[in-house]
Amino acid sequence: MKRSRIPDVFKNRKKFRVAASESDHLLDESNVALSEVPSDTKAALLYLRSLVNVKAFEDRIPPIVFKQQVYSIVSCKTVVDKQINDLREKKEIKLFRLGKESDAFAIVFTDNYRDHIRKTLADSPAKERFLETVIEKSSDVSLDQKTMTDFGFKDEEITQLLHGGVLNVRDVGSWWIAIPGAGIFMKCFTKGRDSVLRTIRKSKYQKILQKELEERKLVAVKKLGIQYHIHDIIGAELVTKQDTTSGPMLTLDV
């Protein structure tokens, strides 16, 4: 199995790597603004997006990536979090809560999310208002009753959005902004992650060369691809990646 090739947008930008010990020093310098630090955060997101084959899901989802996957590419988490927040405030990306973990944030480029809503949601005034307000004007992950009222949504329209899968109940009078089809995606993602971790767990000393893992024919990772899952388990710190003379070694964190 051939390894995925990083697109030009990722190759052509200067890579920024900061070791943990170095990042503390960098971020403590009061005369250095984080915005001035070169970063590959957006390029990493574009690369990760390119790994998602939406055709494998019959175009029922937009390209979805997880924030922790970016950590596997750009090593300074503080910079990643700052620049993801900047991209969110600029409305270039949308963040979503997916999964059981409290910090399991998924990322979709706004253009992809907008196109997905246009294809998925039935035409209605609620759909048009959602496109014009929630997508174009809001950078929040969730919405409360006051915000929805300010945006002009009536109770019956909120119900329509819930049925359409673009809102999920968070609490009484508050909702998570959602991705229609996310359930299908998460089922596939979870099975793939479990399959990859199980493969490493069964390996000698619970470690495996990355290139060997990439060559394994794992049915559960077919839709999203092994590279997608490798970036996930490294970024989520489920495995430790260590360079060896034979290539990167992945060791299960226990």
Explain what this protein looks like in three dimensions.
- It is a single chain.
- The protein is of the alpha+beta class.
- Among the domains are: 56 residues; 71 residues, Arc Repressor Mutant, subunit A, CATH 1.10.10.
- Helix content is 46%, strand content 15%.
- It has 12 helices and 9 strands.
- The strands form 3 sheets. A 3-stranded antiparallel sheet has the order 1-3-2. Strands 4-6-5 form a 3-stranded antiparallel sheet.
- α10 packs across α12.
- The longest helix has 21 residues.
Please render the helix and strand layout as text.
Blueprint: H1 8-11, H2 20-28, H3 41-50, E1 65-66, H4 67-71, H5 77-89, E2 93-97, E3 105-109, H6 110-120, H7 125-135, E4 142-144, H8 145-150, H9 155-164, E5 167-171, E6 174-177, H10 182-202, E7 207-209, H11 210-215, H12 226-235, E8 239-244, E9 247-252
Antiparallel strand pairs: 1-3, 2-3, 4-6, 5-6, 7-9, 8-9
